[in-house]
Automatic annotation (TrEMBL):
Signal peptide range: 1-25
Pfam families: SBP_bac_5
Protein name (record): ABC transporter substrate-binding protein
Segments forming domain Solute-binding protein family: 79-414
InterPro entries given in the database record: Peptide/Ni-bd, SBP_5, SBP_5_dom
Presence of keyword Signal: yes
Keywords tagged on the record: Signal
Amino acid sequence: MRVPARLLSLTAVTAAAALLTGCFAGTGSTGSGTGERIRLAMMQPPRSGLSPLSDDAFKLSRWSTAETLVKLDARGDARPALATEWRRSGRTWTFAIRKGVTFHDGTEFDAEAVVRSLRAAADASPEPRILDGVELTARADGDRVVVTTATEDPLVPQRLSSPQLSVLAARAYRGKTVNPVGAGTGPFELTKVNGTASAALDRYDDYWGERAKAPGIDVTFVPDGTARAAALRSGEADIVEAVPVSQAALLDEERITEVPMPRTNTLYLNTSGGPFAKAALRAAAREAIDTGSIVAGVYEGRADAAEGLLGPALPWAAELRTDVRRPTATKAKGETITLGTFTDRAELPEVAATLQQQLQQAGFEVRLEIREYANIESDALAGEFDAFLLSRATVLDCGDPAAYLYSDFASDGSFNLSRLADSSVDEALTKAGGTATGAARRKAVVAAEAAVLATDAAIPLLHERVVQGDAERVVGAAHDPRERELVTADTYVR
């Protein structure tokens, strides 16, 4: 039975805070200038040694240490960053490179450096998911970079905004590994990484843009959500990433911010084998699930029940969405399924337990398998589960959901947990990816979403709202729906 957050004993919270005492005392050098270093508690430790070619890239972006050619504005439109302007000619895009930029090791930022980083990403195995289905080449032309794709791609600037395509100094690339320490161009220099425990960054005083207001950042990785919340309560942390819903009620409401996220909790059903290879049983699973009770019970109302894969962070999706014709359900007759999820997001195990009850009431036998994400992802991608519960960002990479839809549901998508291979879905995804930005593209994206939903290969449950904690003395912390920014040059502690 779940205990409401308001009834939780503060003993556990106090104990968790005690475990963190000293963790945020300052693991890096003091940097130059005045002010206090920012103590940051993050949810997930690095999975790939902070390589920008992995999801760790978003940590580098949230710490303002690694930068890209392009950034996105609030609407998802491309704006200058390390590139000052660009133009398109068919399959070719030409980017003018910003002058006066240096890497943190003092070497010059130039077109050759951009080409080196883009080639490293294009040649990586596995390649960054922002490049799923994209064949990209790059060459230097004086102080410009010429990017060419195998087919016309209207989203090249948006793709180049992905933190996985950050530009790093030559020193970062050694064989097959990428080490970002001292190799970025942002207002903070990554100076120290202590495995999966902590990291430190100092202000980079030769930054090409606005000088950072804080002298540095001390990062501690705290997978336990109760401990993260306790760190904010006790004053051990200044900024806390992803406060669990169960802990939010224990915090001062003025210290937390809820942001509707382009993030969907989805139940992916394995269409390649097992019970869910049958569309009728996938439909039975869909009809068995009560998302409203999950939102009210597990998330205490701090989430939005899903009507599609794209949620309120993209309001145009609801405006364009129409009814979807789904398969007819058959009654389950004791089919055994294995449902997997992970512990890194505190609510997911409880959601999985609720799904287990709902599916068993519908006639399925459900086994749960719950591990840390780093220990379960490979099995999920290999199709070892009949169903997998995932909290998935839908516009994380390029500000456009077409890339997420392709990655997760195309026959050759790199993150196809459902192992879906459907020609109608592939056709809709290809059309959405090739449509020019604007109203026509949004319509094509919603049509692709409908094609996926019509297969019941994925059952969207809810759209998360991230709960971020900021201490009273923190000024200017970013509350970014895309999870790209957290500490910026304007963030400091009073």
